[in-house]
Amino acid sequence: MIPSENADPIPSFSEDLNTWEKFKVIVQSILRTLLGIIFIAAIVAFVPNSVDGAIWIPFGAIILVLVIYIWYFRLQLRRIHKSKYPNIQAGEALILVATMFLAIFAVTYDLMSQANPDSFTEVLTRFSAFYFAVTVLATVGFGDITPVTTAARSVAMLQMAIDIAFIAVAVKIVSGAASSAIQQRNPKSGATDK
């Protein structure tokens, strides 16, 4: 994109705001992030965790969640470009996109556990499935929940492989969007929002 001559320069968070204004921006960011996490939890709550005869329903729901994920990621990138403080918006976007990414694997693990209770060392709930997805992302591997079947191990390995790329690609895309927004509004100064 070519920088607009009429674009407003991005105010510097650290220099242009007083303490109260900074506090307000941070609280608004935290509230937006929490609302985003609640939105993601609501989507996950609607995915059925029973595979009683209609296996297409939960897998159809996973595909729907993947479509929503792509839409949501693109929405976050647009929000960064339009934001008054792109770097703050980028931080929100990373948290929300990572939460949604983990939610997709949590739902998958939960469905696998419900379909075959022997898939993991314990039958997973939505919460324990999310916990397991986070431990796989963090490569912590406490050992309290482990995949047992080949299918469960395969999905865990897939998550591990995607995690490596996801972290690098998501950070690059989101930070690139923030940098692009800043450069479009401040083309000569090359200033960044800190």
Automatic annotation (TrEMBL):
<feature type="transmembrane region" description="Helical">
    <location>
        <begin position="155"/>
        <end position="178"/>
    </location>
</feature>
<feature type="transmembrane region" description="Helical">
    <location>
        <begin position="124"/>
        <end position="143"/>
    </location>
</feature>
<feature type="domain" description="Potassium channel">
    <location>
        <begin position="99"/>
        <end position="175"/>
    </location>
</feature>
<protein>
    <submittedName>
        <fullName>Unannotated protein</fullName>
    </submittedName>
</protein>
<dbReference type="InterPro" id="IPR013099">
    <property type="entry name" value="K_chnl_dom"/>
</dbReference>
<feature type="transmembrane region" description="Helical">
    <location>
        <begin position="93"/>
        <end position="112"/>
    </location>
</feature>
<keyword id="KW-0472">Membrane</keyword>
<keyword id="KW-1133">Transmembrane helix</keyword>
<feature type="transmembrane region" description="Helical">
    <location>
        <begin position="30"/>
        <end position="47"/>
    </location>
</feature>
<feature type="transmembrane region" description="Helical">
    <location>
        <begin position="53"/>
        <end position="72"/>
    </location>
</feature>
<dbReference type="Pfam" id="PF07885">
    <property type="entry name" value="Ion_trans_2"/>
</dbReference>
<keyword id="KW-0812">Transmembrane</keyword>
